[in-house]
Amino acid sequence: MKIPDEFQHLTPYNMNSYTDSFVSGKQQKYIELQYYRDENSLKFYARVLFHVETQGAPGIVHGGAIASVLDETMGAVSFLNKMPAVTASLTVNYHRPLPVEKTVYIITQVEKTEGRKIYIIGKMVDKNQRLFADSKGIFVKVPNERIGL
Ligand SMILES: CCCCCCCCCCCC(=O)SCCNC(=O)CCNC(=O)[C@H](O)C(C)(C)COP(=O)(O)OP(=O)(O)OC[C@H]1O[C@@H](n2cnc3c(N)ncnc32)[C@H](O)[C@@H]1OP(=O)(O)O
């Protein structure tokens, strides 16, 4: 599968040893997801293929499915930056309908932290950098035990 230039130097990252989340765990029938990280940056990445089972309107990926994948990829960027956290708030802007069976790419990053609050942003684009959705959220740091670590 072709990946955009920005993804070519990245290292695939397997989250399954930490979680069997419905987004990225053993379930890959509805959503096929591969995470990537860049050792030299605080960003976290995902390549995602939503299968037809995730549709809302015919042929269009359900907004909740998109939000779930953005949420987890945003949560993961805080985890990988050694700040285990849970989502307190999440806003998603949907810029154009995403057809099912179309590969898209997610990039997330920590914008800033304030005490226990971590402000995280994300975006979902296709290989031509067309924007399908972007997101921002406040994640709140919690003890490891809260998220099963
Ligand atoms: C396994 C590894 C793999 C990791 C792989 C990654 C997997 C990630 C999965 C995706 C992530 C998820 O879906 S997580 C699941 C969905 N989310 C949840 O279940 C969270 C449920 N909510 C909670 O547990 C709680 O409400 C918390 C932890 C968010 C906050 O409770 P608390 O601990 O009592 O803290 P509290 O004092 O209320 O708040 C702390 C600070 O955050 C602020 N704050 C709290 N809520 C909000 C809010 N909605 N919007 C703005 N700000 C807020 C407060 O004002 C305060 O700011 P200040 O006064 O200090 O300034």
Verbal overview:
The chain starts with 10 loop residues before the first strand and ends in an 8-residue tail after the last strand. Strands 1-2-3-5-6-7-4 form a seven-stranded antiparallel β-sheet, covered by helices on one side. It is globular. The model has no long low-confidence stretch (mean pLDDT 91). It is built from one helix and seven strands, in the order E-E-E-H-E-E-E-E. It has a single domain (5-142), classed as Thiol Ester Dehydrase, Chain A (Roll). The chain has 149 residues and is mainly beta. Bound molecules: dodecyl-COA. Residues 15, 18-19, 71-72, 75-76, 79, 86-89, 115-117, 138, 140, 142, 147-149 line the site of dodecyl-COA (DCC). Its EC number is 3.1.2.2. It is a peripheral membrane protein. GO terms for molecular function: thiolester hydrolase activity.
List keywords for this structure.
149 residues, mainly beta, Thiol Ester Dehydrase, Chain A, binds dodecyl-COA
Q: TL;DR?
A:
By secondary structure, the chain is mostly beta strands. Helix content is about 10%, strand content about 40%. The radius of gyration is 15 Å and the shape is globular.
Indicate the topology.
Layout: E1 11-13, E2 31-37, E3 44-50, H1 63-80, E4 85-94, E5 103-114, E6 117-125, E7 131-141
Antiparallel strand pairs: 1-2, 2-3, 3-5, 4-7, 5-6, 6-7
GO biological process, one term: fatty acid metabolic process
Organism: Maribellus comscasis
Protein name: Acyl-coenzyme A thioesterase THEM4
